[in-house]
Write a structure and sequence with these properties.
Number of strands: 3
Largest sheet: 3 strands, antiparallel
Helix content: 40-55%
Number of helices: 2
Structural class: alpha+beta
Number of domains: 1
Strand content: 15-25%
Shape: rod-shaped
Oligomer: single chain
Length: 126
Amino acid sequence: MRNNKGFTLVELLATIAIIGIMSGIAVMSVSRILNNAKQKYYSSLRSTIISASKSYYGDHRTLLPAKKNEGREIPIQTLIKYKYLSEVVDYSKKKCDYNDTKIKVTRISADKYTYEVQLSCPGIKD
């Protein structure tokens, strides 16, 4: 009687197939997690820039739009120059373009304004 120890070809192929399926699921999950982290980073970055803009305009109220539906843009460079914001980088830690990254402030009523951030960074498509 022979005592064959080892795996059959069918068992090995089944194991390889299962490992392949599990690694495919893992890659998709990690990719989704990284994409969500990137989106949260840019959302947080925009919030930080808006907060800095509100502080800047709080100190420079005469620069706010005077009429309803009027808008004004300032480059992010202004916020950095006056120390309202430090260096702004994208998700890959590459410096954003300080002249093309802008904040638009629009007056919507007597005492309400909207703030929009247009990011110009190497790793983002706006």
